[in-house]
């Protein structure tokens, strides 16, 4: 029994170290960003560790597992920057979806748009044929403004903002990092100009790790220059609150996913999704409702939020 307790203690300490990795602001070694995103797994394993520790009276292991759970929860639970404002009547519902090289099921997406009465749609990994097909649907016909042309072929670079309200394209700085397209539009919501930025930095894979981190830092720097107007940043951030660079990108903004964000990726595996990397972040807007939608053909969940512009 003493050996079992010792092994449980070692395992608990390892779990605690893994759960604490989100507080390490580094991009090397290259396995670190993926490990940081596994907070839900560390919580599940630590809960199992607590049960085994109680059964074997391995109290030190139980304590280490409990701390690991608490440390992991801090990087998942979303409690900061919740909008505290006098919400007006001006409504804008936003949805974002990674279309997986344009292969997302257009009919299902159209149904989701109608279900949540979406006003602004941000599509990453969009293709021009996919967008054309969406705009022919009953739901797609509502979108009379768009951010511009996107790619024709099966590429990750295509990003589109579609709006049913009057909108104009806004130039954004290129930033220091290589990213996919990240356009912005100013949307007229009952007389209030709401700035919408589509987000799609490169993923945290070996060759792109420096650009992934810098791209998120660039977004944080950009959004802090936009204070004083309602702002939405929506898209596939390829990051969650487990990553220091994402925490910088959203500083001063609120993640509409609520206190426990749903995991949005990957959706095409034999195991459940484990990372919440698709977000709708807001400032100067009140959140009435929010959620996710499963769309066939893509490995991401769509994320939506029903918003009201804050009165000044």
From TrEMBL:
InterPro entries: Endo/exonu/phosph_ase_sf (IPR036691), Endo/exonuclease/phosphatase (IPR005135). It comes from the Bacteria. Keywords: Membrane, Transmembrane, Transmembrane helix. The chain crosses the membrane at residues 42-60. Gene3D superfamilies: Endonuclease/exonuclease/phosphatase. Residues 95-300 form the Endonuclease/exonuclease/phosphatase domain. One of its GO terms (molecular function) is catalytic activity. Signal peptide: none annotated. This is Endonuclease/exonuclease/phosphatase domain-containing protein. It comes from Aeromicrobium flavum.
């Amino acid at each position: 029994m003493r050996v079992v307790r010792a092994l449980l203690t070692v395992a608990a300490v390892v779990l605690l170290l893994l759960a604490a990795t989100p507080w390490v602001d580094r991009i090397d070694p290259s396995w670190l960003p993926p490990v940081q995103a596994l907070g839900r797994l560390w919580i599940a394993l630590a809960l199992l560790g607590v049960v085994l520790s109680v059964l074997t009276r391995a109290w030190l292991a139980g304590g280490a597992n409990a701390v690991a759970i608490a440390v992991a929860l801090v990087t998942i639970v979303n409690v900061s920057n919740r909008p505290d404002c006098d919400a007006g009547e001006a409504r804008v519902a936003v949805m974002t979806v990674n279309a997986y090289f344009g292969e997302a099921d257009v009919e299902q997406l159209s149904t989701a748009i109608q279900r949540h009465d979406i006003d602004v749609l941000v599509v990453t990994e969009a293709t021009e044929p996919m967008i054309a097909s969406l705009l022919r649907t009953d739901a797609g016909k509502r979108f009379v403004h768009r951010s511009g042309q996107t790619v024709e072929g099966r590429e990750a670079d295509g990003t589109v903002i579609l709006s049913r309200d009057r909108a104009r394209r806004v130039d954004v700085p290129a930033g220091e990092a290589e990213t996919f397209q990240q356009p912005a539009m100013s949307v007229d919501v009952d007389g209030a100009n709401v700035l919408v930025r589509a987000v799609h930095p490169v993923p945290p894979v070996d060759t792109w790790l420096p650009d992934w981190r810098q791209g998120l830092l660039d977004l944080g720097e950009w959004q802090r220059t936009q204070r004083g107007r309602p702002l939405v940043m929506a898209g596939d951030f390829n990051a969650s609150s487990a990553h220091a660079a994402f925490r910088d990108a959203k500083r001063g903004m609120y993640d509409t996913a609520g206190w426990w964000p749903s995991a949005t990726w990957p959706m095409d595996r034999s195991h459940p999704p484990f990372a919440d990397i698709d977000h709708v972040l807001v400032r100067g807007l009140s959140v009435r409702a929010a959620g996710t939608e499963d769309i066939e053909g893509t490995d991401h969940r769509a994320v939506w939020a029903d918003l009201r512009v804050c009165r000044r």
